[in-house]
Amino acid sequence: MRSASIRIRFLLMVSITLLVTACGFDNTSDKNTDTVRLVEVTHSIFYAPQYVAINKGFFKDEGIDLQLSSAFGGDKAMTALLSGHADIALSGAETAVYVSAQGAQHPVIGFAQLTQKDGSFLVSRKPVKQFDWNDLKGKELLGQRKGGMPEMVSEYVQRKNGLKPHKDLKIIQNVDFKNLGGAFASGTGDYVQLFEPIASKMEQEGTGHVVASFGKDSGNLPYTVYMSKKNYIEKHPDLVKRFTRAIHRGQRWVQSHSAEEIADVIQPDFKGTSRDILIKVIHRYKSQNTWASDPLIDRKEYQRMLQIMEQAGELPSSVPYETVIQTNIAEKVIQKEP
After folding, report:
1. pTM score, two decimals?
2. Which N-terminal residues, if any, form the signal peptide (predicted)?
């Protein structure tokens, strides 16, 4: 049965956008710098190449004054974009599919990719020497929000390994994302699906043990991409290209530097996380090629995402790749066209 909650939220966002007059903004903070308001779905080490691009001055080199904010939710990030309170949103590509299916007044286009794999891990209460996905049979998994990409990926991986979600195992979904680690530490569930750095912190404390990677077992996806309204891209093609170029420089820098070097650059963005944990998380993400090496959004990976959404019963309609994805800007950046 398809979940109505996700689609209802996006329908509400579209309705709000029709009622809200987008705030006018001056895209120039001075004669040589353009302001870009970027909203990220959440603040996470998962987006390390972005913070590298910021802290290494790659946006400044492109004449961009980047104003970054966190929405703490894909629906909220999309609301900020649609209502005109953000110029660009970093979120899962599935949000563009939802918006397109609801017939938004201003189409949303994904133009650059940041992560190409799910960033969550399966954490066991007890150490497991040789984990097999069939170990989940008859167990309780503290999972993610119904209809969200992490949960859809989890169920995709379960099916891929011969399990029937919600039948072969119980999936607990009434715990908020921010409380998952605490709930597991308090005794809820036999396994939990966690993002970093919570998974590594639990390992350090001895309250959990990472036994599998959802990203590794699900394959490449347009997991988090940069999106904007179509009319914004058409009005500011050079600015969007410069933005993409800064991100690509961050991607290349991360590819060519060690976990220790990356940790030193992004540490100011994660003052509450120790350097040791940062290094461990970055190494884990680098080892499974979590971060895309370039901003190009792949057609086959997009189709895999639709397949995952369909299996989860969350695909409102089969939105064509060309409807929500644009590659010409990323292609020019990769080819170093002026």
Report:
1. 0.87
2. 1-22
